[in-house]
Amino acid sequence: MTKTVEEQTVDKLNHVQSGGVHKEPKKPRVKQAKYAMLLGYQGKKYYGMQLQKDLPTIESKLLEAMETAGWITTAQKEKPFDFFFQRAARTDRAVSAARQMCGMQLPRDDAKYQAEGAGILNNILPADIRVFGMRRTTNFFHPQKQCDHRTYSYTCPSFVFAKPTELTNSSFRLSPETLAEVNSILSIYLGTHNFFNYTAKRAYDDMSSNRYIISFECKEPFLFRDDFRKEDVEFVQIVIKGQSFVLHQIRKMVGMVITVIRELHLKSSIQRSFEGQRMDIPMAPGLGLLLERTHYDSYDRKNSKSHEPLTDWGEIIEKEIERTKFELITKDMIETELLTQGMLKWLADLVHHDFTANAEAEEPEKKTFVTMAAACASKAAKEQDGVAPEAQDAPKEAEAPAEVTPEPVAATSSG
């Protein structure tokens, strides 16, 4: 009996054949390697870049395509961190990207991924998500942590910078003097500042709100033909380069500059926004925001002898990116703006923005025509009673009286 047990135990480990030891064959170990993937997308149909349960995102479509191509398993698709999937920037809902960078670990096959990878995925992905290329990276590459800087652009009609004496419509043309004034105001943001007022749920003493801005510039205006209304509309592109950005930061910066140029607030309010008092800064629409480029200058210099660069992908790919950016993103962005007139609607509401906010709130309360009309009615009632509004607490916007309607306010919102 003892011999039988011994034989069974030995049999599980190896087979003894002709006096030698024959081990059970093991599954071949698949060598893994890290890869960078460069992609662009039109984000208006998606709830941002990052994976979210039961919501369409860029990552959900990308992971589905990789699974269909046989690059990853179903388990890896559900838990992408298992193959070290990361992205350089977490773009918000409806925000697009011309050069988003992702990193991942896949079975090593440089020839397939670098030569055919983009084509394989593009045949599976929806038309509003395009992969431009893949490159082998170092084993410790991380697209978010090793990204030196990020460049974004914001495209909008130039009439956002119309003065109170100028018409806010398609006939507006930005003067060189106003363009210079815009760039002068944008320069206030250069350097390191506390942007707690430009995001949500962050306190003044939260050091993570400190961000470094390298450049911030409004480019020369350009004309785009509105085929529906048979007229040329002038647009501008604001380009910002920074180390990194907090949630909503760029859209609120643009909103603040527009408010100052339109003389709805003082220029000095920008400097005060970096200080301890809570302000409700208006946030420009998300349609015009685009992630232009992620910069890996330090990585490229350090690994120039062993790996291809990740900031510049060569003339052929860069030309394809520029073509796709215009056709897929910029053109659609402008045409959507002309069709929906979203910026005009936002500007109509901007005249009612009072910049006040509850300093104890995690984020500013939402304002509507009804709540603002209620606040105005309450203020007028106090003045009629001879009580200074400042002497009492600000009325709660949620307590709008039922009889107050938005029509009277809407009639005065054309500025």
From TrEMBL:
Enzyme active site: D92 (nucleophile)
Chief location bin: nucleus
Transmembrane annotation, as ranges: none
GO biological process: mRNA processing; mRNA pseudouridine synthesis; tRNA pseudouridine synthesis
Reactions catalysed according to its record: a uridine in tRNA = a pseudouridine in tRNA; a uridine in mRNA = a pseudouridine in mRNA; uridine(38/39/40) in tRNA = pseudouridine(38/39/40) in tRNA
List of residues binding substrate: Y152
The enzyme's E.C. designation: 5.4.99.12
Biased composition (Low complexity): 401-415
Positions of the UniProt region annotated as Disordered: 380-415
Catalytic class of the enzyme: isomerase
Gene3D superfamilies assigned to the protein according to its UniProt record, in alphabetical order: Pseudouridine synthase I, catalytic domain, C-terminal subdomain, Pseudouridine synthase I, catalytic domain, N-terminal subdomain
Gene Ontology molecular function: pseudouridine synthase activity; RNA binding; tRNA pseudouridine(38-40) synthase activity
Domain Pseudouridine synthase I TruA alpha/beta: 188-297
Gene Ontology cellular-component terms listed: nucleus
Pfam family, one: PseudoU_synth_1
Family: Belongs to the tRNA pseudouridine synthase TruA family.
Subunit architecture: Monomer. Forms a complex with RARG and the SRA1 RNA in the nucleus.
Role played: Pseudouridylate synthase that catalyzes pseudouridylation of tRNAs and mRNAs. Acts on positions 27/28 in the anticodon stem and also positions 34 and 36 in the anticodon of an intron containing tRNA. Also catalyzes pseudouridylation of mRNAs: mediates pseudouridylation of mRNAs with the consensus sequence 5'-UGUAG-3'. Acts as a regulator of pre-mRNA splicing by mediating pseudouridylation of pre-mRNAs at locations associated with alternatively spliced regions. Pseudouridylation of pre-mRNAs near splice sites directly regulates mRNA splicing and mRNA 3'-end processing.
Protein name in UniProt: Pseudouridylate synthase 1 homolog
The species this protein was found in: Caenorhabditis elegans
UniProt gene name: pus-1
